[in-house]
Amino acid sequence: MTLKQYFSLVDTIARLSLKAEARRYYFGFWWWVIEPLLYVAVFYIVFERLLGTRTPDFLMFLIVGKFTFIWFSKTVNYAGNSLVANAGLIGRMDLPKTLFPLAVILECTYRQTAVFALLGMALILDGYRPNAYWLWVLPLICVEALLIVVCGFVASVLVCIKRDFALLINLGMLFLLFMSGVFWDLSAISDQSTQEALLFWNPVAFLLHSFRQVLLWQQTPDLTHLMGLTLLLGCALGLVANGMARYRYYLAQRVVTT
Fold first, then answer.
1. Alpha helices per DSSP H over the chain
2. Which of 93, 144, 159, 161 keeps 20 to 30 A from 56, CA to CA?
3. Taking the chain (258 residues) in consecutive chunks of 10 residues, what is each chunk's mean pLDDT?
């Protein structure tokens, strides 16, 4: 299989899955934007109306954080089950094992384009005007996509080896939800060293904070950190993809027999 054929197959699988999902539900494609809006509504009612958070412009703060976090969390969860969900096909054909999680990641990314479009509309309607800082959104999206691919590949391998990892990944996403500043501002941490450590060791928290910097606060993200994270993720992707190719028969055996 050539590289062109590989990516063409990934794209075809992703598009067919999108069409099948749209036919499965009454609201079809509208669920792509309804679902994140419902998440935001729940958090807004709890933290703004019931608990009275003091974060300025909390609604837009929450929308930026949740819309970007949901892309990561849902995609990695879905990618984690991609190999076991295709056990029948994997048992019959020697296909690249990265094909299945990558197709899921691309499918979720297609959905996320509608969510990012909704995010832009919400910001403009709330009085935020596009400016030069918004240009940083594109590299931030690319870095988050790279993070999703790496984590999605790792998740698919772990779930393939032991199904119990699917539950642990779900718990991990819940942990990240609270540790990444989705509904609270990282600057609320009084200890500067703790705040810096959280941004350094938690790439999801760093990316969410960076999205808010460029979209809400007209600030440039930490370029040194961004470049270092990109380099680290690029190396990790090469290692994980190479490992999945080298041990493809082992992964196929685990998928079929467990």
1. 3-24, 31-44, 58-80, 82-85, 87-92, 99-125, 137-161, 165-179, 192-201, 203-215, 223-246, 248-257
2. 144
3. 87 88 70 82 80 76 93 95 91 90 94 92 92 96 98 96 93 93 84 89 96 95 96 97 94 87
